[in-house]
Amino acid sequence: MPFRSPSELADRLAAEGAYEDAATLLRQGADAHPGDAAWPWALGRLVLERSSSADKALEALERANALAPGEAALWVDLG
What mean pLDDT value characterizes the chain? Predict the structure, then answer.
């Protein structure tokens, strides 16, 4: 089954306990698609949910916000 969003596969990996694999996938996607806010946004959300590293989550979410500043849902994640 194909995945519809960057976070869908990462969410599945994280749910199976493969958090590091999920984070790596999203980091690689963000690097490969530097103009696409979906990758760092998904990474920031994953880190917020699964890690105690608020700094890393904020860094990813701020990168996503720079790419998609009008995305209201992203502002919610930024808090």
Answer: 86
Token reading at 49: 């949910």
Cβ-count burial 5-40 (b if 16+ within 10 Å, e if not): ebbebbbebbeeeebeebbebbeebbeeeeeebbbb
Burial class (CB in 10 A: 0-12, 13-18, 19+), 45: buried
pLDDT, average across residues 29-52? 89
> What angle (nearest 5°) sits at the alpha carbon of residue 41, between those of residues 39 and 45?
120
Structure tokens at 24: 């790596």
Q: 15, 14, 31: which is closest to 23 by C-alpha?
A: 14
| pTM over cut 0.85 | no
- pLDDT average, residue stretch 22-35: 92
